């Protein structure tokens, strides 16, 4: 099985940091407000020390290291291949997910390049299938999504995979005639 482009580690890392950034900012502001109120309510008239800010010099680097380790693990366990039966991928660090998409179910193959992916020279390959145009979760239908998303492949590999998938899809649909 093939792995994603090695620059995928950086794409995953930045994605993890940005996804966690908003909750961390919210919790930091909430914590500062709580500690500020606590400082105002001290009866002894002493100053309240914001010693928790000193912990940020430890917390932030540890958080960044953990995000990088998780990105490396995500990259290591994300694999794909084109088999005789269809497109196959496996992913997941803790919970493994195995997806096989038969060629005769493939409807469309798209290549997306977001701003960060373009900076890194990467592409996302989206394989859309018959009957799977919406992502369904335990919360209901969540909108359009591709069943076979392959993030962070190089531009050349993405275009090569798209062409190969389209060719195999055409061959599998013409075999029954």
From TrEMBL:
Q: Which UniProt keywords apply?
A: Membrane, Transmembrane, Transmembrane helix
* Signal peptide stretch: none
Q: Which organism is it from?
A: Candidatus Zambryskibacteria bacterium RIFCSPHIGHO2_02_FULL_43_14
Full protein name: YdbS-like PH domain-containing protein
- One of its Pfam families is bPH_2
TM region(s), chain numbering? 9-32, 52-71
Task: Please give the superkingdom of this protein's source.
Answer: Bacteria
Boundaries of every YdbS-like PH domain copy? 75-164
């Amino acid at each position: 099985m093939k792995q994603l482009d090695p620059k995928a580690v950086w794409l995953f890392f930045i994605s993890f940091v940005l996804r966690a950034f908003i909750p961390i900012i919210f919790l930091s502001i909430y914590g500062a407000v709580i500690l500020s109120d606590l400082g105002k309510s001290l009866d002894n008239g002493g100053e309240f020390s914001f010693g928790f800010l000193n912990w940020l010099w430890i917390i932030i680097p540890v958080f960044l290291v953990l995000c990088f380790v998780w990105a490396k693990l995500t990259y290591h366990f994300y694999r794909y291949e084109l088999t005789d039966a269809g497109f196959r991928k496996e992913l997941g660090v803790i919970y493994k997910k195995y997806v096989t998409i038969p060629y005769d179910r493939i409807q469309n193959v798209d290549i997306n390049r977001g701003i960060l992916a373009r900076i890194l020279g990467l592409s996302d390959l989206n394989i859309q299938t018959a009957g799977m145009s919406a992502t369904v979760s335990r919360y209901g239908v969540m909108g359009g999504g591709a069943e076979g998303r392959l993030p962070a492949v190089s531009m050349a590999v993405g275009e090569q995979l798209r062409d190969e998938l389209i060719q195999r899809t055409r061959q599998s649909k013409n075999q029954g005639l």
